[in-house]
Amino acid sequence: MYQQMIFVNLPVNDLDASKKFFTDLGYTINPRFSDENAASVVISDTIVAMLLTRPFYATFTDKEIADATRTSEVLVALSAESRDQVDALVDRALSLGGTTSGRTQDLGFMYGRAFDDLDGHTWEVVWMDPAAVQG
Predict the structure, then answer these.
(1) Which of these, 128, 130, 106, 125, lies nearest to 114 by C-alpha position?
(2) Cβ-contact 52, 38 below 8 angstroms
(3) What is each CA distance from 40 to 24, 32, 34, 77, in whole angstroms?
């Protein structure tokens, strides 16, 4: 059965530093789709973050490229299996040079925290109680 994928393309200032940040978070780089201009970060079977050098990113758009440290261009949200997994991933990102973004959200049935990566892109990590999702 076909599963639709998402490829999140993000401009980065230092490709090597960004690759290290995401591999240290526990993700892998797919070398088949990576070179000196881009790194393919495998988040899951259906989610890939394409980290692109700013000049290479610019070849895909005529728009001004946002400086994510000064303005919000996207919020990337990832699901987590548990509250503990939310905390573990965000705490790990913070220990690797990421910064806290926003406030912790604890609604009982839903729990989330967020971090900004080295380039200021916001990654939200969210757990939802499966019983609440099912209705």
Answers:
(1) 125
(2) yes
(3) 15, 8, 6, 18
State if pTM tops 0.85.
Answer: yes
Q: Under a CB-based contact definition with an 8 Å cutoff, are residues 124 and 77 in contact?
A: yes
Cα separation of 2 and 67, whole Å?
35
Between vectors from CA 29 to CA 23 and to CA 35, what angle results, nearest 5°? 125
Those residues whose C-beta lies under 8 Å from the C-beta of residue 10, and which sit 6 or more positions away, are 49, 50, 51, 52, 57, 74, 119, 121
pLDDT in tens, 40-79: 999 999 999 999 999 999 999 999 999 999 999 889 999 9
